[in-house]
Amino acid sequence: MITLTSLKHEFILELKMACREPSFVLPTLLFPIMFYIFFGILFSDLGGGGQSSTYLMVSYGVFGIMSPALFGFGASVASERDKGWLALKQITPMPPLQYILAKLLNALIFAAVIVVMLFTIGAVFGGVLLSTGQWVALAALLLFGTLPFCALGLAVGFWVKGNSAVAILNLIFLPSAFLSGLAIPVFMFPSWLQSLANLLPPFHLSQLGLKIVEMDIGQPLITHVAALSISLIIFSALAITGYKRSLGA
Amino acid sequence: MQSAINIDGLCFGYTSKNAHQLILNQLSLSFEPGQLTCLLGANGAGKTTLINLLLGRLTSQQGSIGYFEQQLDIKDVRQRIGAMLQDSSAPERATPFELLTLFSSYYPNPVELSKLIKQLGLTPILNQQFGRLSGGQKQLVLLALALCANPDILFLDEPSVGMDVATRRILWQVIEQYKQLGKTIILTTHYLEEADALADRIVVLHQGKITADGTPAQLKSQFAQKTIRAKSHLTQQQITALAQVISLTTCGGYIEVVTGNAAATLKHWLTLEPALEDISITNADLEQAFLQITSTDTTKPLAQGDAA
Question: Which of A16, A180, B85, B129 is deepest in the core (most CB within 10 A)?
Fold first, then answer.
């Protein structure tokens, strides 16, 4: 049974451990902010009514929330499994769901910090003008949007050994971010590359975000929601089979 | 008294493409409260597999494990067990205090942390990161985590690996205290002096079967056979046929004979070979007894003993 006190301890310890790990905190928090300041603010056409700063705020928002989800889950689960820490937890009465919830809350906290920083920079320095509804919807979308990536991180964490997990996650993270049009907008892609982007979850999440600011490429809402739901289901199933496999290892 | 754990006809094996490797073969065994049972066996004898089965980390293919009152579910059992696992460690960035607070929150009736911390002498390292502790300190923290549950059954799988003399003394003291509280302790170790000093009972596993079970004293007397070493011109058949010979190995130009009664064997031998040279007789200690049980199959007198 999950008790609130125990979940609180689990979550706070996760958060403390993450904050003490500079190789996690620095790239996770700084990269999206840095990229956005460079490409969205300094090099953008401020005269264009904040067009590109708005577009890129959504893109780097997706880029930003992917990192704590993938690395917070994947790298930490893989290393805890390798160290035998997971094995020690598995023989306590603590339900596995508590372990996962604590890591999920942790990824959400980091995602929220990134979203708030990006939005602040966008609004103050980038001339991004949105209605309150749009701001709220965008923030909620980005937080909910961490879920498929958390599941993917978890799956990698349970299937890949500690040291290789970070490498595998980088191989997933950066190419899928670029191919989804997070750095260069997807409408500038050749058409074959655009159809490839349709297979990638970050593309669908960013299109949903762009839909809120009316800058998407015009695919129906349901396509994106379905694609993200399907990827969430597939990654969760992979994570669950990976977890079961870890029990006997 | 009610046994803490009852194992009946337990079988476990791994099936690969073309072979089925049996790790545990029809194992039946029970563990009693207030007793420390030491599982001994060479690597691959099935000790860790047995512990993983008892902890519910593996599922047996045959046989049953009953805890306390029969049929207690493993989920309920988990509230009453604590374990130090082989090759287990804690996250580097957490402090012992944080780890202990977290683990205590998992159990309905945890131990009083301040007492545990004092007992194990953890106060000076309580707020240091786990990754910065020495090997022995890490083992003590892991021991403390195993004790958080205030467990009725304590599993210690190679607990003293990496411990210095001082930390091992703390481990031994804690084990003695727990025994006196009527707890069940299951220990595996590579240090035979540790087994000798702590165990009430030693169970020797060899190829998934129990080959010896008794108090350290019984085991030593049962296997306190002597080894006669000499240069001989007799054939192996002739020597094997000598009175009381249990097994025979050749070593350099020497023949080593394990015997149940050195005097009888030697008397017989000298009648056949009066010019026997370079004779020496040695006692078996626990380590030798252990090596004999696990490296030679005592039911077959002529097995080639390779004491590795």
Answer: A180
Beta-carbon separation of A93 and B81 below 8 A: no
Size of interface A-B (CB pairs under 8 A): 69
Residue A127 falls in which region: left (phi positive, over 0), alpha (psi -120 to 50) or beta:
left
Separation of alpha carbons A215 and A130, rounded Å:
12
Give me the amino acid identity at A47. Answer: G
DSSP code of A39? I
Compute the average pLDDT of residues A164-175: 93
Element spanning A233, H or E: helix A221-248
User: What CATH number is given for B221-295 in this structure?
Assistant: 3.30.70
A100: CB partners within 8 A, 6+ apart: A154
Ranges of each domain in chain B: 5-214, 221-295
DSSP string, A63-123: HHHHHIIIIIHHHHHHHHHHTTHHHHHHTSS--HHHHHHHHHHHHHHHHHHHHHHHHHHHH
A112-152 pLDDT, tens per residue? 999 999 999 999 998 899 999 999 999 999 999 999 999 99
**How high is the ipTM of this complex?**
0.90
H-helix segments, chain B: 47-54, 74-77, 96-104, 113-119, 135-147, 165-180, 192-198, 216-222, 236-240, 262-272, 286-295
- Count of residues in chain A: 249
Cα A82 to the chain's mean position, in Å? 24
Domain count, chain A: 1
Phi then psi dihedrals of residue B148, to 5 deg: -50, -40
Beta bridge partners of B214: B202
Domain enclosing residue A49, as ranges:
4-248
Tokens of B2: 């009610």
- Structural tokens at position B202: 């030693």
Q: Is B261 an 8 Å CB contact of chain A? A: no
Helix A51-67 and helix A162-179, axial crossing angle in degrees, nearest 10: 160
Closest-CA residue of chain A to B84? A88
Residues B196 and B286 sit within 8 Å (Cβ to Cβ): yes
Tens of pLDDT, residues B139-195 = 999 999 999 999 999 999 999 888 888 899 999 999 999 999 999 999 998 788 888
User: How far is A169 from A74, CA to CA, in rounded Å?
Assistant: 7
CATH superfamily of B5-214: P-loop containing nucleotide triphosphate hydrolases (3.40.50.300)
Among B83, B90, B94, whose Cβ lies nearest the Cβ of A91? B83
One-letter amino acid identity for B68? F
Is A88 part of the contact surface with chain B (CB cutoff 8 Å)?
Answer: yes
By DSSP bridging, strand B201-206 and strand B209-214 are antiparallel
Domains B5-214 and B221-295 share a fold: no
Task: Tell whether A10 is within 8 A of chain B (Cβ).
Answer: yes
C-beta separation of B200 from B36 below 8 A: yes
- Chain B: residue nearest A247 by CA? B57
Summarize the confidence of residues A41-69 as an average pLDDT: 85
